[in-house]
Write a structure and sequence with these properties.
Layout lengths: L10 H8 L6 E4 L6 H9 L3 E6 L2 H13 L4 E5 L5 H6 L6 E7 L4 H5 L24 H7 L2 H12 L4 H14 L5 H11 L11 H11 L2 H15 E11 L2 H14 L22 E3 L9 H6 L7 E7 L2 H5 L4 H4 L4
Parallel strand pairs: 1-2, 1-4, 2-3, 4-5
Antiparallel strand pairs: 5-7, 6-7
Helix pairs in contact: 7-8, 7-10, 8-9, 11-12
The structure holds S-adenosylmethionine.
S-adenosylmethionine binds next to helix 2 and strand 2.
Length: about 325
């Protein structure tokens, strides 16, 4: 048993939106501690494919798979590649996909993974086993690109100041640990007024870039939508505004909820294709007070869900408005 634990976020809301059915085939693209996968397997006699890019998560999952003989299948890889990963196993359609984005408590709390400034560890931050580490980025990126990374992926307003400090410090000695980086950042930041550690946004930015998290989300959402069978559902839980913006925009576009073209458009009336999907969550769902109280990690969680219209809808020739109607 690991010394770490991961409490699944918005578990009840995820189950409600996914509505697991007997005989259905699901994908959990972010297996983590297996909390979602287990809850779905317990909710209905279904089959579950589970992907995680972290070999440690997949190894943990082996014990869970034994408890659900023939029902839980684990694959190591990025969910951005889910089409190819599943195709390799002969799976070409799914009744539901869940994505619980970001890092797990297993990863954050294990100082040897380098995600946290709350202890010391190697400046790694890779969810997977290969690729560029955060230390590689901090030691090699030109100052302007470092600043740009902190600004784009961390929304860090003082990105230039921090990048300058990093470049100065790395000329003195290599930056290879989380504590050294956190101290360099703290040294040039004003005292925090909201209690948030001054390195929080910079660590988020480096993590996102190391793992190409936004690229993975973009590829994963499209692949999930392509794999969904009629009536299939995609449920996504995000933890910061950059993730949620991608999810919200994708869901809005897929459900045909983009603004109608202006009637003054010089091209005249441009008919819009009827959407194949409908939004199940017109507004993002947030955790309830009890969960917020018991699990601080849930604080910034937002859940959104999308459904591929059942086949009857797709062929019934209903109007755009009827097809996009919300329940
Ligand atoms: C928040 S945790 C998921 C927790 C899980 N829902 C549970 O209940 O235990 C996120 C997990 O997704 C994995 N992950 C993040 N991005 C990924 C990606 N692009 N492809 C595959 N796995 C990813 C991480 O390695 C981590 O284990």
């Amino acid at each position: 048993m690991s010394e770490f634990q991961h409490i699944p976020v918005m578990l009840d809301e995820m189950l409600h939106e996914l509505s697991p059915r007997a005989g259905a085939v699901y994908l959990d693209g972010t297996f983590g501690g297996g909390g979602y996968a287990k809850a779905i397997l317990d909710a209905a006699p279904c089959t579950m494919w589970a992907i995680d890019r972290d070999p440690a998560a997949v190894a943990r999952g082996a014990a869970l798979a034994v408890k659900y003989p023939g029902r839980l299948h684990l694959i190591e890889g990025g969910f951005g590649q889910m089409l190819a990963l599943l195709q390799h196993h002969g799976v070409t359609a799914l009744d539901g996909v869940v994505l619980d984005l970001g890092v797990s408590s297993f990863q954050i709390d294990d100082m040897s993974r380098g995600f946290s400034f709350r202890g010391d560890g190697p400046l790694d931050m890779r969810m997977g086993a290969t690729g560029t580490t955060a230390a590689d980025l901090v030691m090699t990126l030109p100052e302007a690109e470092l600043a740009d990374t902190l600004y784009r992926f961390g929304e860090e307003r003082l990105s230039r100041r921090i990048a300058r400090a990093i470049v100065t410090a790395r000329a003195e000695a290599p930056i290879t640990t989380t504590q050294r980086l956190a101290e360099i950042i703290r040294g040039v930041m004003p005292p925090s007024r909201d209690g948030i550690h001054p390195a929080t946004r910079s660590f988020q930015a480096l993590r996102i870039r190391v793992n190409d998290e936004l690229g993975e989300i973009t590829r994963g959402l499209q692949a999930a939508a392509d794999l969904l069978a009629p009536g299939g559902r995609l449920v996504v839980v995000s933890f910061h505004s950059l993730e949620d913006r991608l999810v919200k925009t994708f869901f809005t576009n897929m459900s045909g909820r983009t603004p109608a073209p202006s009637r003054h458009d010089p091209r005249g009336h441009v008919p819009r294709a009827a959407p194949d999907f409908r939004l199940l969550t017109p507004r993002a769902r947030r955790p309830g007070p009890a969960e917020l109280h018991s699990n601080p990690r849930a604080r910034s969680a937002r859940l959104r869900a999308l459904e591929r219209l059942p086949a009857a809808f797709e062929t019934s020739g209903q109007t755009d408005g009827q097809r996009g109607a919300l329940t």
